[in-house]
Each structure stands twice: as structure tokens, then as C-alpha cells.
Amino acid sequence: MNGLLLVNLGTPDAPDTASVRRYLAEFLWDHRVLDIPAIGRFFLLYGAILPFRPAKSARAYQKVWSPETGSPLLHHSAALTDAVRAELGQGWTVALGMRYGRPNLQSALDTLENSGCTRIFVQPLYPQYASSSTGSTVERLFALAGQRPATPNLTILPEFYDDADFIESVRAVAAPHLDAIKPDHVLMSYHGLPERQVQATQIAGTGHCLASGACCDRIETVNSRCYRAQCYATTRALTAALGLEPGAVTVSFQSRLGNIPWIKPYTDELLPVLAAKHKKLAVLCPSFTSDCLETLEEIGMAAKAEYAKLGGELHLIPCVNSSPRWVQAVVDRARRAAG
User: Fold this and answer.
1) Distance between CA atoms of 326 and 172, rounded to whole angstroms?
2) Residue 205: pLDDT above 70?
3) Residue 50 phi, psi (nearest 5)
């Protein structure tokens, strides 16, 4: 029996302050997310973040939380899991795990092992590699595996930032929306990362990352695991697949936290610049496979309202979620890995 574990980042159990506080405490205690010494992480988390941020984040979650389906990220991830399970059929057990929150990775591994899986293939649902997402997921999975008397046979499937099936899945969802909207410009807004986390993934001693404006123009050995370089590679692939002119597309990075430098350009700072030139803006968020707080509230509500104040129209394009082409892409990746 083969097992497929789909992993997404996570979500609180409910859109209330207590639930969000528990979620943020788990998320931000991860040394790969807040990559500072433990003592500093403790005081930052419990002294500056958790006393204030959960209430604000809970209000944001309340805007996107559905009475029928709950968390949008969990809803879309579960729908993808169900569809992939149905398509793979006999010989496979498919489980969903969240790096933070529930269903957690421990319970997902239990489900797969209790189903008699002798091989477990793990697909993190993050298109681009980042230490704080893919890296953290892999570290946690191997730690959990190492605690078991019989360690499971885990195979981690790689990131898919320019995989032809992923790009086609995004194109299949985005193209009808773009045809209907007929935007003046397209913004591809990716989740941001601190600059130091990006620089840490380059080959030591090269000084390549963020050293020039052209450092992300192509994927090379030196930056093959660089999140920013992979985001630009995704953009190039999607620009071609959607038949867009390179000058009609802008890249930006959203969701920064704190005062340290994050990778640029920042989405919120670009909006006034774009609004001065383009009345109708379409936004894709290709670092997410499931619509979530960052896409629906941060872009689809907050950024949309800001763009309207600037005199423009902002249209959020949905993520691939559980669309048929993306379901097939995940199934095909699993089957290829299993041989």
C-alpha cells in the first residue's frame, strides 16, 4: 500500500482570539520561522506578539471564515485531498496534515501507517522552497518518524515552482478570469520572507543573493533553492503560459512582519505606483495553492479596498485549490514518484 501525505501550512481551529493565539504560538515558536536564538524568540513572541496580534488576526480570519465550511485553507486542502484520493483509487491511502494546527502531521502519519502503507510519499503544497515552509515541514516529519519504533519509509516530493503541470493548472484557473476581466496589468504577489532567510539558502561564500538586480533572472546552482529566484521563475513560466507580455506583469511580495528587511518589492508599497498607471489590476498569488487569509483578506479585501481608494479596480484571481487540472497534477506527481 502506498501512502500520499499532502501538507499545507496550517490554520487556527476557529476565528477567535484564543484559537488564533494557540496557532500563532505554535507557528512562531518554530526556529525556522522566527530564526533567532530561543531566548530572543521567547521574549519577542510572548512579550511583543502574542499579547496583541491574535485579536487583530482573529478579526481578519472572521472576514474569510465560512459558517458552512470554516477555514478556507482547510476547506480547500481537504477538498483537494478527497479528490486526489478518489482519483488514485485502490492501492493508495491519502491523508492531509498541517505543519501547524490540525490535522497535524502526527495524526496524518498515524492514519497512513494504520492503513498499512509501506511507502509514504510527502507532497508539501508550497510551490517554491523556503526554509520556513518546506524546510520546517521536512524537519518536523523526520523528527516524528525518528520517534517511531519502526521508522516509516518517507519520500519527500520536491517543490514545483516551474513544473509544467503546476503552471498549466494555474493557467487553467486564471485564463478565464483574465479573459473576463481584461486587466490593464497583472500583479503576481508572493508571500514574503526576511532577506536573511533567502540569503541563507545560497551556496556559502558566493554572495550571489540580492547582490544585484539580476540575481534572480535565472535559476543556477548557486540559487537553486532560493525562494525569490524560484518566485521569479514561476512568474516567467506563467507569463509565457498566459500569453502575457513581460512588461504587463509585475512581481511583488506581501505579508511582511516586523521591521527587518524583507525581500522586495513590497506589495502594499507598489499599489499606489500601479494605480497611477493602471485602472484595472488583476492579482495572482502563485506562492499559494489554496486560497487562505493571505489571499482572500490581505489581497481580496484589504488591497482591493486600498486600490479602490486610489481610483482603480483590483481583481483577485483564485488559487488552484481543488480544480480538476491541479488534482490531476498532484495525482500524476504521486504516481511518477511511486514508479
Assistant:
1) 9
2) no
3) -65, -30
Residues 75 and 175 in one domain: no
Could you identify the residue written with the cell 543573493?
A: 209
Shared domain check, 152 and 14: yes
- Alpha-carbon distance of 179 to 245, in angstroms, equals 15
Measured distance CA(130)–CA(127) in Å, rounded: 9
Consecutive H or E run containing 223? none
Q: What digits encode the pLDDT tens for the residues 250-268?
A: 999 999 988 899 999 999 9
**Cα–Cα distance for residue pair 150/245, rounded to 1 Å:** 53
Both 14 and 80 in one domain: the answer is yes
pLDDT digits (tens, 9 = 90+) for 284-323: 999 999 999 999 999 999 999 999 999 999 999 999 999 9
Distance of CA 231 to the CA centre of its chain: 11
State which residues form the domain around 9. 2-159+323-338
Q: Provide CB contacts within 8 A for 246, sequence distance 6+.
A: 239
Q: Which residues contact 114 (CB under 8 A, 6 or more apart)?
A: none
**Cα three-residue angle 206-208-209, rounded to 5 degrees:** 130
Give the predicted TM-score (pTM) of the model.
0.96
Let me know whether 329 and 276 are in one domain: no
* Residue 239's CATH number: 3.40.50.1400
Report pLDDT digits (tens) over 154-168: 999 999 999 999 999
